[in-house]
Amino acid sequence: MKTTVSTLKKQKENKEKITMLTCYDYSMAKLMDEAGIEILLIGDSLGNTMLGYDTTLPVTMEDMIAHTAAVSRGAKNAFVLADMPFMSYQTSVYDAVVNAGRLMKEGHAHGVKLEGGARVCPQIEAIVASDIPVCAHIGLTPQSINAFGGFKVQGKSEEAARQLVEDAKKVEAAGASMLVMECVPAKLAEIITNTISIPTIGIGAGAGCDGQVLVNQDMLGMFHDFTPKFVKQFANVGEIMMQAFKDYSAEVKAGTFPAQEHTYAISDEVIDKLY
Length: 275
Hints:
Elements: H1 5-13, E1 18-22, H2 26-35, E2 39-42, H3 46-49, H4 61-74, E3 79-83, H5 93-105, E4 111-115, H6 121-129, E5 134-139, H7 145-148, H8 158-174, E6 178-182, H9 186-195, E7 200-203, E8 211-214, H10 216-219, H11 237-254, H12 268-272
Parallel strand pairs: 1-2, 1-8, 2-3, 3-4, 4-5, 5-6, 6-7, 7-8
């Protein structure tokens, strides 16, 4: 069944958990889609996992469009959600709508995600008014790493907790279809989840959210530059890949690959005529 903002809202109402994973390419999108993952997030985390940047800040609209388009071609049932990269929506409401439109038109996304609470409500309202579904993102917002002074849990003081609750209410009122909460204390995230009617997706925000998201390279054991506390490794794919690369290298150097079953034949008669 095709996942839409309506089916996701229904899942929250029925207390059915929602699954989201980051995805950046066609082949991975096909696997996730066939596995039944409901939302494929083309996160600007691709700056870290795919492009090797220290932060997400250098990621461009062109980066996001190219990866979103690739994922869209592999997704048949999943909802394709594209991150709006740094400075693609902060500069003006006009820029936010134009760039959200590009992710839909050129990337074939089904919706866009942008970071921030009350301060980005004008952008959310304008994007939604253009019939583009929006996912808001509060708590630890990686594009604000320099303002935060690093990757830190958000909402631990009374004032900060109240601000997150208010941000959640305001982005819902602005028209957001769902909300990602990152690095938020579990009890606070559960209160927010029970306060608003739109689905909440947690990453380091406890099991009380309506759904969960992880970076696929983290949960597959493929990315070791840093590992957040909230990551669970569901498979050690990185180790399997490393061994496969070593085995391939060894067989090529030993001359055992390619073997006869991997080669194409030609008649001796044709070969004889070449001499």
